[in-house]
Specification:
five-stranded antiparallel beta sheet; flat; 15 strands; 3 domains; 213 residues; four-stranded antiparallel beta sheet
Length: 213
């Protein structure tokens, strides 16, 4: 069935755009006219980061200067020596990139350490990212039961919301809460009603961060 309505090129002013206005969209097979209503119904009013989060262990810093990285681990790249490093094949940056955090997207060996050192905290949460249209987000271990998602000022003030699905095994013994939200970070705390904050309670816990347009 043929599409009906005016194409965008036939309009003389933006106010004439309706649900039946046809927009040219390029695909590998050519250019096709798509109704405006089909385009707008598939555009989210926000950017989103959805992940399954798992955390084990306590505050413990390790370093890596060769060999493969571990998928999901947050690494801090110390390239203060100024070498021509290249971590692009594992989700990191290339030279120059001093003091940069990134989450490894696989468990491969980086293209080139060239003297650089990767630092990581074995107690930091490990994300399994399902969707990310916000940008570079990484996780750090703040303190016992307290973990932080950082970004490069990507969490817009008064336009950022966070959704958390607590682990089903907690029952009534404790709870997670989102706190310390800012344009640069979102803090996540687990508190037990009897013993206070504790680690090892995140197991594929769903976290969703939305930044509205």
């Amino acid at each position: 069935m043929a599409l009906t309505g005016k194409t965008i090129g036939e309009l003389t002013e933006l106010s004439a755009i309706t649900e039946t206005t046809l927009f040219p969209v390029q695909f590998s097979g050519g250019t096709f006219n798509i109704p405006y209503s089909s385009i707008t119904t598939n555009i989210k009013p926000y950017k989103v980061y959805t992940t399954l989060l798992t955390q084990t262990g306590g505050d413990n810093i390790e370093t890596l200067s060769s060999g493969p990285v571990t998928q999901g681990v947050t690494y801090y790249l110390d390239d203060s020596g100024g070498g021509d490093t290249d971590f692009t094949n594992v989700g990191g940056p290339a030279y120059p990139a001093s003091f940069v955090y990134f989450v490894a997207t696989n468990s491969d060996t980086p293209n080139d350490y060239n003297g650089a050192i990767l630092q990581y905290n074995t107690g930091a949460p490990i994300p399994t990212v399902l969707e990310n249209t916000i940008g570079n987000i990484w996780w750090v271990y703040g303190s016992v039961g307290y973990y932080i998602a950082y970004s490069d000022n990507l969490f817009t003030l008064n336009k950022t919301t966070v959704f958390l699905e607590p682990p089903s095994n907690l029952y009534n013994t404790g709870f997670f809460e989102i706190n310390d939200k800012s344009i640069n970070s979102v803090g996540l705390t687990y508190a037990n009603q009897l013993s206070g904050n504790s680690d090892n309670n995140l197991v594929n816990t769903t976290i969703e961060i939305r930044v509205y347009n």
